[in-house]
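Q: Give me a protein?
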Amino acid sequence: RGVSCLGRFMPRTFVIPPGMELHHIVPHDVDEDGDDENPQSPDPPIWSEIMRFFSNPRKPMILALARPDPKKNLVALVKAFGECRPLRDLANLTLIMGN
């Protein structure tokens, strides 16, 4: 039996918007009172490998995880990032591609 939901109130249907609520997140090197326990955290071992790809590795990162498929349109992402000078000044673009 088919049931049309058009025009019907469905109280068990919820819309979950994309994104995250960042006010729930506390960095693990800061306690809940906001006091810095360790003001300078050590760099991870892979840091030297990462630094060779970025002129400024401390900038925020735009991370794209996808398989290298034309359907994912990574070419447009790289083109848009490359053409936007303010965005290039603010962040690094990191592509992780694979199956």
Observations:
- The mean pLDDT is 76.
